[in-house]
Design a protein that fits this description.
alpha/beta, five-stranded parallel β-sheet, globular, binds P1-(5'-adenosyl)P5-(5'-thymidyl)pentaphosphate
């Protein structure tokens, strides 16, 4: 087989599930897009998706949870909505793509629920895990956690201007708590979650990400 053919026909027969995580505005979307572009350019089949959303039903739930007043939903109701969206997304998009041998790159997954909902009440983290085990039962093979100063992340997220700002309206203190929570998760799952320094320029962050992903693919 020539070098050209091996590049255009990667030999993966089982999929690889990669998620991006981090606080709001940490650069997940930018980095996920660059990674997808790179992996496709070297011949991989990639499904690019996101949460909340990713499937038609999941996107409808996305509008419910991300728009409106901060107090629109209680943390418990949010947990149910995010889990419902994730279940639909898994059934319709993620599992079929993985079964087809594709690399799935997902902008946020269950770790976001562990942090954004699980840290908002004493008994909520246990409820998040129980519901995850019952209804989702799967975590990514690899999670890229983009670590970022909360003030910078929040100012970047505010520039987005999409109206999906319900969580950012909780303010910088929540971002600080969430950053600490993500870093603690990375210590809890050191094999799956890799911490990337998001304060570097875009290309340098991407270089670090590619090094981790290419190692996972070999
Ligand atoms: N949520 C989600 C839950 O509460 N529970 C859950 O279970 C799930 C799944 C929406 C919200 O939903 C919550 C968490 C969130 O609050 P989201 O759509 O992923 O989730 O929202 P954000 O994280 O806020 O997404 P953003 O698009 O704002 O941030 P990103 O994707 O982290 O950042 P990105 O790439 O869009 O970059 C933001 C800006 O910074 C610039 C970019 O060009 C862009 O302008 N930038 C950089 N500038 C300088 N240097 C760099 N290295 C840069 N990288 C990016």
């Amino acid at each position: 087989m020539s070098a050209d053919v091996s590049v255009s026909e990667p030999s993966r027969t089982t999929g690889l599930f990669i998620s991006f995580e981090g606080i709001d505005g940490s650069g997940k979307t930018t980095q996920a897009n660059l990674l997808v572009e790179h992996l496709r350019s070297i011949g991989h089949n990639v499904t690019r998706t996101r949460e909340p959303g990713g499937s038609p039903g999941g996107e409808q739930i996305r509008a419910l949870v991300l728009e409106g007043d901060a107090g629109r939903w209680s943390p418990q109701t949010e947990l149910l909505l995010f889990t419902a969206a994730r279940r639909d997304h898994l059934e319709r998009i993620i599992r079929p793509a993985l079964a087809n041998g594709e690399i799935v790159i997902c902008d946020r997954f269950a770790d976001s629920t562990r942090i954004y909902q699980g840290q908002r009440g004493a008994d909520l983290r246990a409820a998040v895990e129980a519901l995850h085990d019952l209804m989702i039962g799967q975590d990514p093979d690899l999670t890229l956690l983009i670590d970022m100063d909360p003030a910078i992340g929040l100012s970047r997220a505010h520039q987005r201007g999409t109206g999906e700002d319900r969580f950012e309206s909780f303010g910088e203190e929540l971002q600080r708590t969430n950053r600490a929570g993500f870093l603690a998760l990375a210590k809890q799952f050191p094999k799956r979650i890799r911490v990337i320094d998001g304060t570097q320029d875009i290309d340098a962050v991407q270089d670090d990400i590619r090094a981790v992903v290419m190692a996972a693919l070999t």
